[in-house]
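Bench notes, afternoon.
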Amino acid sequence: QVQLVESGGGLVQPGGSLRLSCAASGSIANIEVMAWYRQAPGKQRELVAIITSGGTTRYQGAARGRFTISRDNAKNTVNLQMNSLKPEDTAVYSCNVAVADFAGRLRGYWGQGTQVTVSS
């Protein structure tokens, strides 16, 4: 079993910054992929950024240049640094991980989500 704990969400003014963190714990041999998704009111959930175990990153177009995803493999943690925030970034942000346990089985896990609100 794996548990994800997210933190860092909150209320920020346009142009401000937030840093989201997601820490995984439990039966983890390796986290192959870590990603951040978001879902704004009335919209479908979308991928914001993803990072592989090798450090390769991909970003949703609107996030590229403003957001940076990173991971600390020793701490089983993924972070999302969000700069130059815009009102349209307002959403519930959720961490998603693909975990290999000690038997070599891959499982996907979701965090509970953290609210990010960008408003003046």
